[in-house]
Amino acid sequence: MSQQSIAMAPQPAAPFQWKKFFSMENRYLAPAFITCILLVGQLSFGFLESYKKTVAAILASLITELILGWIYLGKRPILASAYISGISVGILVRSPAFWPYIVCAMVAIMSKYVLRVHGRHIWNPSNFSISVLLYLAPATVAALSIQWGNYLLPMVVIWVLGSIIIYRLHRFHITATYVVSFIVLSYVRSLLTGSPWLSEVAPLTGPMYQLFIFFMITDPKTTVKSKKWQIVVAAMVAVVEMILRLDHVVYAPFYALFFVGPAAFLIEDWFKTRSAIPAQVPA
Amino acid sequence: MKPGILTRTIVTIVFFALVFSPLFIRRYEARRDESRAKLDLQAALAGHGFYLQEVSKQAGVNFVHEAPTLDAKLAHIMPQVASMGASVSIVDFDRDGWPDIYVTNSKEGSKNALYRNNHDGTFTDVAEQMGIADVNKAGTGVSMGAVWGDYDNDGYEDLLLIKWGKPELFHNDGGKGFTRVTEQAGLPAWVNANTALWFDYDGDGKLDFFIGGYYAEDVDLWHLSSTKIMPDSFEYAKNGGRKYLFHNLGNGKFEEVSEKMGINSRRWALASTAADLRGTGHPDLFVSNDYGVSELYFNDGKKFHEAGQETGVGFAPKSGMNASVGDILNQGRFSVYVSNISEEGVLIQGNNLWVPKEGTSGDGTKYENLARDFGVEMGGWSFGAQFGDLNNDGTLDLYLTNGYVSLDRNKSYWYDFSKIAGGHALIINDAKNWPAMEGRSLSGYQTKHLWLNDGSGKFVDVAPAVGVTDTYDGRAVAFADLWNRGALDVIVANERGPLLIYKNTVTPENKWIEFDLTGTKSNRSAIGARVTVYWNGQQQAQEVSGGSGFASQNQRRLHFGLGKFPQIEKAVIRWPSGKIQTIPNPAPDQIHEVKEPE
Q1: What is the pTM of this model?
Q2: Has the ipTM of the complex gone over 0.90?
Q3: Contact state of B423 with A152 under an 8 Å Cβ cutoff
């Protein structure tokens, strides 16, 4: 989901250094982390719909990126972000059919090249494609919405590891803002609806949210630039999600980011344009 | 390099075509379903070879299932907790050659019914006079299902009744009444069970039985000491009821041997069936679990070993609510149908049709889920299903009932349900954390499915076109030739709803044959006996079952459709004792009563 690796310059080979590994300079950090989540989830609990579907999503994502990268950039693109998109689709999409995995992965990558404003894509690719599919194909597609298992330890490990990585990538404030907002707003929802507070918080304990908060809302390519506004946008995602949840929208977080992310980006872009900042070359 | 306008236009068109492709697929499927939904009985007879008519009232059956009222601590989610108990099993309890119907009720103090077949199209409830009606007394729990088997080989089918409460065994006294023998048999004091079956797992000629627990057995749902009784995960729960395997000692007593025999699970069992899936002569045990993976216990006659993972059926966790087997490709091999939950926009598990993989057999048997390829995947909140040849064309069709809780049509509980379903064990496990239902439906008012098998791997849903139009919260389905006409009728038990009897009218052009088996060396009920009919260059295998589907049992008599102009080469019976009996050129359109050769 996160696209930070696209714009990174290649690094020369060097002895392994933990500090460097957990840094913005390591384009393989996020792919390594999401691969860990995949492996832990699958080997511990067998949580995938099937290996084949996940592999199909990853392959569809990589191939689409290769083709469009060659068409648009004239060279082989760095595939780290496409790998993350593919693996995210493979984990988050739940469908007994095969085609949603391929279509979703392809749409995710294509959205980066087609839906652009001033040289930048405005939606997080997997957020866009999963939201579209959930909305347009509800009879065939759902999203991962259950636990991987009953154990606290894997969840704690993923939260801790994810937090460390996100912190090293200087985006922990986004995750933290969203989580705190979600918890506070859960209490508000509980007061408004009369539902037990724990039932309102419950979704946050699931793996879908772990992927959402570590990979989707932190995506550098589709978030605003200033730290202050990143915090505001993360809080806004939580607020819009609450509104959608009050309307009983099951996939509220995806849709909230779908609306808020591009809106924030466009507002920022409008301000930039007014200041006559030139558009960037597509990554 | 920048792409030209043409390239960019093409990429953009492809992109939007992909984005909107789900809409095109949906529109196509909606049109197709619409064309199949028109009900015209004569057209159904001509086009599909049969139609169904609901005749319970004309048959004198006015049974309506009532749900229990559990502990007040569950009041806020009572409709979804007290959501099972409607079951149906077919038995010829008085051996008059006509199938009778036993149905369970679940309200405290309510009565179960035994509908004796009057041979004239009507039935009379004789449960009270037979002593098996008043079985839901306060303090003893309430009925969840019943299966029949002649455990003492006296020629009359005995009744095993499972409950959320004390399971009961009733001995059939020559078709004239029943005697409760629960204590003598050694049944446990309390099991919150939703599935049970009779089978002779060790081939000693005496029927044993299996009971699968749902809630843990130390939970009394009417007197809760804690509200932490719910599953600890929506798809990985292992805090359900234990399993029981009772070995028949032959003196009216049973010994519980589950652990000794390799069955040790606390998954939330909802359905089970037994059949020889590997051709070993021993019945294997398939258990469909709610909140988790299915389990397949391979049986070598002396011990079971769980082979869910290695065969492929225990890989992806879902919400198993049915287990039925059928030789759907007329290859002499059984596929297994497991029902799950699919709710548009929320949860798409899809049902599973586990078909044996080509090139695998015996202990190396592997299964692949071909429900989507065969067209039997999407069934809503699915419950009981059965395979049977409803139009006598020579291939097994599939009937599926569904629907969970039908309350307010305009208000859905799904959003709240999905919230809690995603929660950690500490949250989902405690009923007090579950949002109140407040009269809302949860996958209610669903239309049923009747899939016709074209014999080449495709099933087509014709439910409304052949007369299946009810939208009750269906639970159990059983097939029986209720009026000995060579047609399988469909009996459906609905939660908080009426018992439905769909009388089947089949085109007379399609022939049939039925086998009514009696074991001698094998168990008298012949449960586990396999009949393979060879005709017109094809074969179909069926086994006498001691329980299948969800909370149901079909008639013991095996029914085969044969299509037009059948040339029956032979019928081969493999008795549970291992004895093979061949009947050359059996006549079609007849019920063949066959006794195991001494």
Answers
A1: 0.91
A2: no
A3: no
